[in-house]
Amino acid sequence: MINKDVRILVVDDDEGIREGCTRVLRKEGYEVLSAEDGREGLELLRLHKDFAAAVVDLQLPYLNGIELTGHIHEEDPDCVILIVTAFASIDTAVQAIKRGAYGYISKPFTPEELRIQVEKGLSKRELALEARLLRERGRKNLLEIAKERSQCSTIIKCMADGVLVINGEGRIVLRNAAAVRIFNGSGIPPLPCDIDTLHCPRLCDIIKSIFSEDASSFIISEEVSLGDSTYMANISRITGEGYGAVVVLRDVTARRRLEKAKSMFVSLVSHEVQSPLAVIEGYLGIARKKSLGDDPASYTGILERSLLRVQTLRTMVSELMNLTALDVGKFSLKRFTIDVLGVLKDVVESCRERARSRGIHIVLETDAAQEEFMAFADENAIGIVFRNIVENAVKYSLEDGRIEVGVDDNDSHVEIAVRDDGIGIKTGEMGKIFEEFYRAKNRQTSSIPGTGLGLCLVKRILELHHGTISVSSEYGKGSEFIISIPKFEEEEDTGCMP
Amino acid sequence: MPEPDKTVIIVDDDHDFLEMNRRVLVQNGYRVLCCTNYEDALRCIKKHRPSLVVTDLMMDSMDSGFVLSRRIKQDPELQGIAVIIVTAASSRHGFDFKPQTPEELAGMNADAYFDKPLSCPVFLKKVSELTRGRKKG
Q1: Interface predicted TM-score (ipTM)
Q2: CATH of residue A412
Q3: Burial A459-473 (b: 16+ CB within 10 A, else e)
Q4: Under 8 Å CB-to-CB from A112, ≥6 apart: which residues?
């Protein structure tokens, strides 16, 4: 069935035919407008512009049927034009068809003949319109597909992860820039190329296994090593229309390195905690079993040592907490302009008693004229620094030793020097003493309690103050530590804390 | 009681560990010498030829104990000396050196492996077992 909700133009100077056609077509359900001559027909055409069909007499006043056909066709190439002609002028009708008319109907004709010719013309028009609609839709779809494809390829191209697409024959058919970078070392043959050209046997095995009949999974995730880097490879099998696999490689080198460092650190901490615990447990076991006899005095030594190890352990935990807080930025320094000489004096006084018990003498030397040394520092944190350095000097001094503490300043920094004539540090160990858990170990130091974290903490605190610490030492002669702290707040750009 | 000439050398960088085990072993009739590092230990072993060396694993470096045990077992003059490796390295975090089979233990060039803290009865039993069959190194 054709759509009859369309408009038809009838142009004929013969009133009988004009009215007759109009009536027949209206009866069919079409909307019909009629004109007496070519000019009037053209006016109607330009006014309405949406005629699906026109029944045009060949002989018309002002504008003949052939000319009118040309105009109608210009306005709307899909308009079905039916020429009404006398039998004698069939040649002219053929000319009209050449100008774009659909067909002709020769007078006299029956209403049935008109009806059939119009219907045939309209159904051809409908088909033509539909075909054009489909063509346009198709073109639009192609445009969308092209757009999507370019989006997709942009996304794949810009991905930080390496992407490889492998066809069912195990050949690489697509790779992005990141994948080219990853496999750069092994040279890059043009596509399509065999997966063996990746020179990564493990990856090739996984890809082959995902294609195998008994593959239990459509996605395999596994870490592979390429050179110095570690990648998490996700290999997914493509199912459905295509057959192949997609490989996505994510660089996890930095993460793995961090995890390893973290695990090493935890191992170190656990070792450093377990060693004193093992000793304390052993000593307590000896005391409980009374292995050293019934005289309580025999146990004083091991109980003293146990106590000392517990105290060291506690110091270590607190230093570890401070270090962790510094590392994660939770230890916020409260820096003001403070008198560091005052802080230093307090630290020296608190260490004096223990030093004296071993005959060690601590001397604090300053320029007598200068009573204060102002620096921009966190009082608590700088107290931890001084305490560690002065206590170290006492711990690593020999009996009856002498420790000299001096303070001086220049335009920008206050400098504190702590010098002892004790055990000293071997040249090879000098660089390591600021490392976590590093302790110089030899016959002389093995009984000295220490956490291995003190100097590490000192260094970190001074870094946050934009200060420095340096050491000079001669093994067997003594050591000197020099701490330098800025006197003033830094300029904006350097004043940031981690 | 063991013969009085059964000499044991303990190597550990922890003063208290040395002292503690020295007391326990002396109490049980052994002659005990203590060293705090690899070099001292090797010198002491060559000089005193003990029946047994008890060494810590992690001292100057992460595997000082392994280096020492290998040095002893590969030296024709020293290989008769028994070796016990002792460590506080946590087996749960990364450093799992604990041997699972006799072959692994042999691979470490050790006759026994203990975690710290040592269980006195188990340790003494092992010390006695390892020194019994041996002549003075």
Answers
A1: 0.72
A2: 3.30.565.10
A3: bbbbebbbbebebeb
A4: none
The answer to whether residue B88 sits within a structural domain is yes
In Å, how far from its chain's centre is CA A406? 52
Residues in chain A closer than 8 A to B22 (CB atoms) = none
β-sheet bridge partners, residue A377:
A336
Same-domain status, A121 and A228: no
Domain count, chain B: 1
Instruction: Note down the domain range covering A316.
Output: 253-331
CB interface of B with A, residues 45-74, below 8 Å: 58-60
List, as ranges, residues 417-456 from A with C-beta within 8 Å of B. Answer: 441-443, 446-447
Instruction: Please indicate, yes or no, whether residues A113 and A129 belong to a single structural domain of this protein.
Output: yes
CATH number at B41 reads 3.40.50.2300
- Cβ-Cβ contacts under 8 Å, A436 against chain B: none
Distance from CA of A434 to the nearest CA of B (A): 16
Q: What is the pLDDT along chain A (498 residues), one digit of tens a residue?
A: 778 888 999 999 888 889 999 999 999 889 999 998 888 888 888 888 788 999 998 888 788 888 888 888 888 888 899 888 876 677 777 777 887 888 888 888 888 988 998 999 999 889 988 998 999 888 888 888 888 888 888 888 888 899 999 888 888 888 888 888 888 755 677 888 888 888 888 888 888 888 876 666 788 899 998 888 899 999 988 876 667 889 999 999 988 888 887 777 777 777 778 888 888 988 898 888 887 788 889 899 889 989 988 988 888 888 888 877 877 666 678 889 999 999 999 999 988 888 998 999 999 988 777 888 999 999 988 998 999 999 999 999 998 999 999 999 999 999 999 999 999 998 888 888 888 777 776 667 767 777 788 898 899 889 889 999 999 999 989 999 999 999 998 765 444 444
What count of Cα atoms within 13 Å lies in the side-chain half-sphere of residue A195? 22
Q: Does the CB of A268 have a partner CB in chain B at under 8 Å?
A: no
In a domain, B77, yes or no: yes
Do residues A326 and A363 share a domain? no
Nearest CA in chain B to A308: B16
